[in-house]
Amino acid sequence: MTGGLCKLKNLQFLELSRNYFVGYLPPCLANLSSLTVLDISHNSFKGTFPSSLLYNLKSLALLALVNNHFKGTFSFNLLANHSHLQVLNIGSYTHDFKIDTENPPFIPSFQLKILEVINCTLNEPSHVPTFLYNQHELRQLHIGLSNMKGRFPNWLLENNTKLDYLNLSNNHLIGPVEFNATTKFSNMHILDVSCNPIREIPPQVGSLFPNLVTLNKSSSSLQGSFPASLGDMRQLINLDISNNKLSGQIPQEFGKGSNDLRFLKLSNNSLSGPFLPSGSNFTKLLSLHQANNSFRGNIPDEIMKNTELRMLDLSNNKLHGEISSWIGRFQSLTFLILSQNSLEGPIPIGFCKLTELAYVDISHNNLNGTLPKCVILLHLRYLHLQNNKFSGPIPTVLVNSPLLLIMNLVNNKISGQIPKWISSFLNLRILMLKKNKLDGPIPSDVCQLKNISIPDLPQNNLSGSIPSCLNNISFGRLDSLNGKVLGKFVVPWVTRSTLYIFYPDTNTLNEFQDEQHFAEYDEQDVDFMSKSRYETYAGNILDLMSGLDLSINKLIGQIPSQMGYLGNIHTLNLSNNHLTGPLPETFSNLKQIESLDLSCNILGGLIPAQLTNLYHLSVFSVAHNNFTGRTPKRVNQFATFEAGSYEGNTLLCGPPLNRSCPSAIEQPTLEIDAPLLRKDGFIGAFLYSFAPPFLCCISLL
Asked: What is the pLDDT of residue 694?
């Protein structure tokens, strides 16, 4: 990058941002004494920022260093004599870059209009930079993720009445936020003080900031009631006061006043009463997040005035009654989340108009019936219907949802057989059908779900044998997934949902699509049995998880040897069935297995010694079967397994069982014992006579 560049002494504009530059910043850039703009942001420069570089660059009006890998300390004193400086953007990918605005002390000759200090360690001990007392022309100020402490700088707003953007998020600022009753900051459009323990919203916040477009005070330990004066913000488009301790009802003044709202986020508070006040007129609302509060009653008619809604989250409240047919008015709806309420009755016919849905979670209610036959969900990716009272077969309308990634129907009354058309879900990663009334065989069509990582089918009435083709399933192998990510939810390209962002410099509201607006639902989670207990897997952990659970069914026959080639599987549960025959020798190939439960079957023969080479195995059970001979050697992971892993096998001997082996019994091998495993001879009949121990496991049902 050096060479002739450093010889261009008349160069005024050097824009190198958003490239792939690496290494150290060349000090010879100090020769470019005519520079007015130096932007090296969003690269991978490293090392200590060369302080000598700035001594000769006294004409700089814009300096942008943010998002590199600089280390060491950057002193603002280096800029004291840069009288032309108006825009300063500084920060790092890590907190290894320290910013010192106090030592040595200085009086700035510049008047900044834009200052951005992000993801740095700001001063030690950190506090609001004192040089800002001398700044009176600021338009935009962003000091975030910088460990800034102390009281909220009320003086900063009073000194900079032209501020239209203030972001002090992710610091340690405390309240109070106090101003005179007559004070107005009419130029302020965006105010973000989220993730600070401020603890209060000024009662007159609406009159203080009458022209606010965006207000974010989420995760600020706010207490008390919902400020009615928020309704005075007639231009408010985006309000986020989620993750606080606000209580009481939403005042009517707010519902009638903030008619331009597009995004309203009140989730994770203690708000009560109706989730929208009577007389609300939010006709432009695009996104409504009210989860994890104490809202009561039916879903009110006020929401019917809006036909543009894209995201609706009312989960974990105290709503009851039926989902009315008016839900069909929201024909642009992409996210519908009504889980963990007391909703009842069938899914209304109006659901058929919601053709843009990509994410549906109506789990943990008392809903019944099935999906209407007219439903066409071409964009559907996540379907959570678990813990309801849905009945009938797996809805055939889902065959029209080829993009489905997760289907969760756990704990319903779904009956009939697993349909052959299930093979049409070529993108399906998680299939949760536990605790239903499914019967019949597992169709071989399941083997065509090559991208699936968790088929969860326990506690049904499935019968027949285990398909031998299950080794065709990837169980999460990355080479089979073409880079698809499950735990992260990415949806913009599959919907026509339009979101908006406000640009204060042009005072315009423009359409845009960005994953940040889906951050609330970025992490999917499922509950899955592993290591003898239910675990919740979410986000990146879910992406790495793979397992098969066919337990508590009526499966018969031998375990297919092909299952030993599921090399990427982490948990396998075949317990509480009627499986017979040997434990396949191929199971020694399950190198990633962490939990293997074959208990409560009618399996027999010797336990293969090669299983001791499964170094990741932490839970192992062959209890209540008809295994014979010596237990595997107490080496590697098998040294940790107690007697409970082997109990109920009366012909097993050796530690950890309190049953010693006769000297004639040799350590089991896979080849020698094959004749003992025949079902059609005397030995087979003898082993089957020990089926009664299996009955002791039925209590698990």
From this structure: 39
Q: Is 507 exposed, middle or buried (0-12, 13-18, 19+ CB in 10 A)?
A: exposed
Amino acid found at 6: C
Q: 40: domain CATH number?
A: 3.80.10.10
- Report the chain (701 residues): mean pLDDT per 10 consecutive residues: 81 94 92 95 94 92 95 93 96 88 91 95 82 95 92 93 95 90 93 94 92 96 94 95 96 90 95 88 90 87 76 94 87 94 95 94 97 92 96 95 94 98 93 97 95 94 96 66 40 32 40 43 61 58 77 98 92 97 96 95 97 95 97 96 97 95 62 37 33 43 40
Structure tokens, 401:
């949802």
Spatial contact of 380 and 356, defined as CB atoms under 8 Å apart: no
Q: Which residue, chain included where needed, has tokens 């909703």?
A: 343
Q: SS3 for 141?
A: strand
- Residue 276 has what pLDDT? 86
User: Any residues with CB less than 8 A from the CB of 29 and at least 6 apart, and which?
Assistant: 5, 6, 14, 38, 53
- Distances 332 to 275, 279, 302 between C-alpha atoms, Å: 21, 23, 18
Report residue 253 as tokens: 């003044």
Residue 229 DSSP symbol: G
* Pair 512, 505: CB distance under 8 Å: no
In a domain, 357, yes or no: no
The span from the CA of 602 to the CA of 551, in Å, is 14
Distances (CA, A) of 221 to 241, 265, 313: 10, 15, 22
Cis peptide before 176 (omega within 30 of 0): yes
Task: Tell me which amino acid residue 400 is.
Answer: N
Q: What's residue 479's pLDDT? A: 39
Domain span holding position 692: 575-700
Phi, psi at 97, each rounded to 5°: -95, 115
Q: In angstroms, rounded to a whole number, what is the distance separating the alpha carbons of residues 661 and 259?
A: 81
Do residues 207 and 231 lie in contact, with contact meaning Cβ atoms separated by under 8 Å? Answer: no
- Predicted pLDDT at 500: 38
If one counts the domains in the chain, the total is 2
Rounded Cα–Cα distance for residues 309 and 152 (Å): 36
Residue 494 maps to a domain? no
Q: By the 8 A CB rule, do 588 and 564 touch?
A: yes
What CA–CA distance (Å, rounded) separates 656 from 434?
33
Q: What is the CA radius of gyration of the chain?
A: 32
Provide the 10 A C-beta neighbour count for residue 530.
22
Q: Are 233 and 207 in contact (CB under 8 A)?
A: no
Cα 97 to its chain centre, rounded Å, is 29
* pLDDT number for residue 542: 58
Strands 554-558 and 114-118: unpaired
Decide: residue 392, CB within 10 A, 0-12 exposed, 13-18 middle, 19+ buried. middle
> Does the residue 194 lie in any domain?
no
Quote the pTM value: 0.87
User: What values do phi and psi take at 181, rounded to 5?
Assistant: -60, -25
- Whether 201 is in a domain gets the answer no
Task: Choose the final residue of a domain: 174, 206, 235.
Answer: 174
